[in-house]
Amino acid sequence: MINLTPWLQAPAWHIAFSGGLDSTVLLHLLADYARTHPAPPLRAIHIHHGLQPAADAWPAHCELVCANLGVELRVIHVQVAPGASLEQAARDARYAAFTNVVGPGEVLFTGQHRDDQAETLLFRLLRGAGLRGLTAMPAQRPLGQGSLARPLLAIARQQLHAYAQAQGLTWIEDPTNSDTAFARNYLRGEVFPVLQQRWPQASQNLARCAAHLGEAQGLLDEVAQADLAKAEEGAAAAWVGLDSLALAVLAALSPARQRNALQYWLSHRTRLPDARHWAGWADLRDAAADAQPTWRLADGRLLRSNGRIWWLSGDWLQAPQGEFAWADSACELALPGNGSVRLTASKPLAGLTVRYRQGGEVLELAGRGRRDLKRLLNELQVPPFVRSRLPLLYQGERLLAVANLPALGQADCQLHWQLPTNAQGLS
Fold first, then answer.
1. What fold characterizes domain 232-312?
2. What is the maximum alpha-carbon separation in the chain?
3. NCBIfam families, alphabetically (predicted)?
4. Which of 182, 197, 213, 414 is most buried by its number of CB atoms within 10 A?
5. CA separation for the pair 371, 402 (Å, rounded)
């Protein structure tokens, strides 16, 4: 029924096992394959959202199914964040758990099928999604250190149901699946039966349409990659841990190509804004040269500085605080929420501390005398959002060096800063 060849070299297989029809059939197929062919070790993951009393009995059912198939099961309890969309919040919590479990090169199998593909397309059409939102769910995509695979996408729900009955499988019927207050349930229970009475191939044709849209999006992604390659040139070497794009390169493109390039770039970093919020890009792009505009997005923000736009997320959304004594400068010093620093010096130094800017700092430079740090940072075009978190090395009350700026340090003393590792929030 399914082709598992693309994933045979993975170190391990995981399956998202809810206990419902789709994942039960997929688990049965994977376990059967693993019994009769060389295959990676197979483990099941059941996510308990705790959203309804009936769900408390589901882990026991899943444990029984997995025990009968000889498959290890891991039950993970998650907290679903409150918000406008319970479905989206539950999905976010579920996939965050999956990401934590899947190791390097490992595969997580999920049970989405052809009808899911069709329902997703229609659901997004009704919400007014753009081309990227209308593209087909891919058969495989990255997930954390591994990947997510959907081997049932070419198979109809009716085929899965027939297989389950023929094999004598038992599965959970989630009572919320019949609650048409949820948009997807309404489409599945009320809309699609009517469509299929008039057009029996509706699900198959919609799924094929989604695949065509996915191919068109792939071509636009190639255009975006070419545009971004030019815009990514010229990034400041001292801040290589931060992603940025040359504003002039983007502004020279047509408005449609600007949005296309940014959608591709942002899709790896944050949930994309809807059409109403793209005015934030125009405000950022068209602001006065001396302005410092910010475009706030779901998982971070874009800022403009020195002719570039910069993506900030994670620790970069909070200004670091504190003063840190450095007892042993031969060792790396961790800075809470701000990466770490290490020192290279011609001789051992004592009485060192690392601080952040408060204003009015003065640095003594060979051949230039005492200079105001603010002016020096202006000369080097250090972005304003970097300045507040730049580690400064002091000996007593004397400023010795500014991190990652060799020109702002004593000749025999340089401070090297490893920027926060979660700055990008890549998705």
1. 3.30.465
2. 86
3. lysidine_TilS_C, lysidine_TilS_N
4. 414
5. 13
For residue 50, say whether it is annotated as part of any ligand binding site: no
* 267 labeled binding residue: no
Q: Tell me phi and psi for residue 145, to 5 degrees.
A: -85, -5
Residue 425 counted as an annotated binding residue: no
Under a CB-based contact definition with an 8 Å cutoff, are residues 351 and 395 in contact?
yes
Please tell me the pTM assigned to this model: 0.78
Q: Could you tell me how many residues make up the chain?
A: 427
Structure-token pair, residue 229: 């390659």
Q: Which DSSP category does 238 fall into?
A: G
Q: Where are the domains of the chain?
A: 5-213, 232-312, 324-418
Q: What is the CATH number of domain 5-213?
A: 3.40.50.620
> How does pLDDT run across 347-404, given as a tens digit for each residue?
888 999 999 999 999 998 877 888 999 999 999 988 888 999 999 999 999 999 999 9
Which 3-state string (H, E, C) describes 177-222? HHCCCCHHHHHHHHHHHHHHHHCCCHHHHHHHHHHHHHHHHHHHHH
Q: Of 405, 404, 415, 413, nearest to 345 (Cα)?
A: 413
How is the chain split among helix, strand and coil, in percent rounded to 5?
40, 20, 40
Does the annotation list 21 as a binding residue?
yes
As a whole number of angstroms, the distance between CA 276 and CA 286 comes to 17
Tokens of 251: 């502004």
266 SS3 class = helix
